[in-house]
Amino acid sequence: MADKKKAVKRKRVQPPAPEASPVSKPRARGLQLLVVESPTKAKTIGKYLGAGYTVKATVGHVRDLPKRELGVDVENGFTPKYVTIKEKSKTLTDIKKAAKSAERVLIATDPDREGEAIAWHVAEQIKNGDKVRRVLFHEITKDGVAQGLANPLDIDQRKVDAQQARRILDRLVGYKASPLLWRSIKTGLSAGRVQTVALRLICEREDEIRKFVPQEYWTIEADLEKDGQGFQARLHKLDGEKPEIKTAEAAEAVVAEARKLPFVVTAVSLKERRRNAPAPFTTSTVQQEAAKQLGFSAKRTMRAAQALYEGVEVGEEGAVGLITYMRTDSVRVADSALTQARDYIRANFDGRYLPDAPNVHKGKSGSRVQDAHEAIRPTDVLRRPEALKKVLAPDLFKLYQLIWRRFVASQMTPEVYEMTTVDFDLGRFLFRATGSRVLFDGYRALYREGHETEEAKGADELAPIPALAKGDRVTVIQITPSQHFTEPPPRYSEASLVKKLEELGIGRPSTYAAIISTLRERSEEHTSELQSPCN
User: Fold this and answer.
1) Active site includes 325?
2) Which residues contact 167 (CB under 8 A, 6 or more apart)?
3) I need a labelling partner for 512 at 20 to 30 A (CA). Which of 249, 465, 499, 535 fits?
4) pLDDT one-digit tens code per residue, 58-117
5) Which residue out of 48, 82, 309, 325 is catalytically annotated?
């Protein structure tokens, strides 16, 4: 009898026969869970997906190394120990609960290393690899979301490993080195892996500035006129050499002698030059240009770019992503976007502004370049900035306008200008006048690059000079000596620091905003310049 009961009991716990696959036996599609990082993105995507999906947001990382211990087993292959971030316990619980009732879980965190790591952590917590897939959204538009959902992937373990290696290195450097800062400077400071190198660059520049000894030098300019048009020539050679005039007395002697001489043109050189359209933005270049043209910090730029990418309410369209993913090294652009840009130029500009074939831009070369994403561009060129001004916050409008203009201009013809060089050989003295004249504005009809104060003007931005020929005599208005002092290298601006970090291969463009923001926060109680941490 006992044996019979046991047999019955065993029969009751046997698992049910497996259901037929969807291919052999069609069935209604169950609920699907989509996990993203941002609540804003969740809201935008939710409007595209409809009732068959539940969309949850992680709001960044959900798991990390513990705060109060090293969290890395150095003796056993540097194995990390991850714990749930305290503030994210409820978020993770909600995601796990939703995953249990979902037929399939799609993890659509950002398409970069950090996003891949978040996807891996979420998948590890759900613990059901068969129904978890990774999807990538390079633009948050209806078509972009549909394309991502149609091409599910496995989590890229190489990206996860790369992120873990960086995180572990950050922890090892910070956890071991930070106590040194606490003892010598201030409790609570952390020694970031890349942040520390950036600080060193700033401090080395500050040392150069402090040690710099100004040297006096003089230049000689002649104000000239021909047919009522004024222009200026500068002393270019003195006794056949580059002039090195170091005192007021020497300068006055040159001026006194030059004033006695007639200024007759001895040579004229005309050269036609071209300035090609710039490539569309990458993370680094958009940070640099936004700093130069808009006065934005790197952090402010990336915050606005994130909002434009995740989605903005645009009239009857509802929430839509206005730009492609903003963390990229690549200047590559999809063929469909090139076609759209060219169609726009054809419809809105003279035929001379459209090149015969699409412009193909070359980005940085080297193993550090990641070509996983396109360049930063508008998701739809037909969404002109002017039409969106009323619905975009000021920062978002300014940045969108910059990105839109840069992208469309990248497919336009070059600017053409004429460089003119006129020499006045006066024996001991060679004065030279240089000017330029724009023959065709090309892409600059739509977009012009920004310049910082200390940057020299472009060759095409010099003032024009009158038409002159060899043998022409011009009127001398005055010859003036000007005193100057050599200047130390300028302190880094955010734009120039980003450029330097990129040149040296320090960090990645996606991390520059955080690096600079941290350094600035520690120095702004002293000054707005990026130098006070060195004091």
Assistant:
1) yes
2) 64, 65, 80, 117
3) 535
4) 999 999 999 888 888 988 889 999 999 999 999 999 999 999 989 999 999 998 889 999
5) 325
